Amino acid sequence: MLSNASKYALRAILFLANNATEDNKLSAKILSEEIKVPKPFLSKILQQLATKSFVTSIKGPNGGFYISEDQMEANLLSVIIEVEGKDRFNQCALNIDNCNLENPCSLHKYIAPSKEALRDSFSRVRVEDLHESMLA
């Protein structure tokens, strides 16, 4: 259901939340090695996330990426929508443009409730929640 870009973004954010701080930033190279994602692809995702303030990016010899306390409040759905460019949970499973409650595709009634539940779950889970679960 999620694109590789979204999966990589979530993995990067979780790794940063658990392993990086303002005093201990991680480079895209180290992060890509740690989460096993190609560096060029991850660098693009990280810049996109930094532009929208999901992560903090500092340039220079002591630069790198980390997540601030405020950024820990972001919910996973907002990260996914930013990376995907749209809310895939509201898209038709068959990619039919005009599929909706009034004009449903043949799968709509079977899949829509599950997609809505998953969307709701992603909207309720914050980066901080994942970070806390790793500490427990």
Mean pLDDT, rounded to whole units?
92
Q: State the secondary-structure class.
A: mainly alpha
The number of domains is 1
Q: Please report the total strand number as a whole number.
A: 2
- At the first level of CATH, the class is Mainly Alpha
The strand line-up of the biggest sheet is: 1-2
Poorly predicted segments: none
Stated plainly, the CATH topology is called: Arc Repressor Mutant, subunit A
Q: Give the terminus-to-terminus CA distance.
A: 28 Å
Q: In oligomeric terms, what are we looking at?
A: single chain
Number of helices: 6
Give a structural overview:
By secondary structure, this protein is mainly α. Helix content is 53%, strand content 4%. The protein has one domain: Winged helix-like DNA-binding domain superfamily/Winged helix DNA-binding domain (Arc Repressor Mutant, subunit A, Orthogonal Bundle). The chain has six helices and two strands. Strands 1-2 form a two-stranded antiparallel ribbon. Strand 1 (56-58) and strand 2 (64-66) form a beta hairpin. It is elongated, with a radius of gyration of 17 Å. The mean pLDDT is 92.
What's this entry about, in short?
The chain contains 6 helices and 2 strands; from the N terminus they run H-H-H-E-E-H-H-H. It has 136 residues and is mostly helical. It has one domain: Arc Repressor Mutant, subunit A (Orthogonal Bundle).
List keywords for this structure.
136 residues; mainly alpha; two-stranded antiparallel sheet; 6 helices; 53% helix; 4% strand; elongated
What topology does this entry show?
Elements (H helix, E strand, L loop, with lengths): L3 H16 L8 H8 L3 H13 L4 E3 L5 E3 L9 H9 L23 H17 L2 H9 L1
Antiparallel strand pairs: 1-2
Helix pairs in contact: 1-2, 1-3, 1-4, 1-6, 2-3
